[in-house]
Amino acid sequence: MKFTGQCVCGGVTWTVDGEAVSQFYCHCRSCQKATSAPAVAIAIFPASDVAFSGQPASLSITGEEGAAARLYCAGCGTRVANKPGAEGFTELLAMFPPLCDSTDWFQPSMHLFYEESGIEVSDKLPKYLDMPEAFGGSGKTL
Q1: Are 109 and 24 within 8 A, CB to CB?
Q2: Which of 18, 81, 95, 127 has its CA 20 to 30 A from that of 49?
Q3: What is the pLDDT of residues 75-124, one digit of tens each?
Q4: Terminal alpha carbon distance of the chain
Q5: 26 neighbors 132 (Cβ within 8 angstroms)
């Protein structure tokens, strides 16, 4: 799969050329606070499959879900990606499908931190208390 995206002002653009490792909706408090939304659409890609044009700035954060770096455009402030800091995940980038030129490729497979959401979602996707075991979570579903 190959697609492009950009921040609101166009100062940071990117091309993704590869397959997503995972696609989901995250309902964690950290994502909620960063976006002022009850959930965020996320697609995880190997960092080597993502090429940026324009240099995104980086802000290191440590939340309840662990450490990460938020990559954003210094011009308009749009968060363009997250770089997980957890062991085993540092070579990945969390990209945000709504910022991409097309979202036809986005096929979420689950909801993470669903109990923190505060909204009811009626799709048939699994809804995890935190994360699947493969992501370092409990694997418990609601």
Answers
A1: yes
A2: 127
A3: 999 999 999 877 777 899 999 999 999 999 999 999 999 999 989 999 99
A4: 32
A5: no
Q: In terms of pTM, does the model score above 0.85? A: yes
Looking up tokens 């994360």, which residue turns up? 131
For the chain, list the domains and their CATH numbers: 2-135 (3.90.1590.10)
Cβ–Cβ under 8 Å, residues 43 and 55: no
Give residue-wise pLDDT tens across range 70-80. Answer: 999 999 999 99
Considering only CA atoms, give the Rg of the chain.
Answer: 14
Spatial distance between the Cα atoms of 139 and 70, rounded to a whole number of angstroms: 25
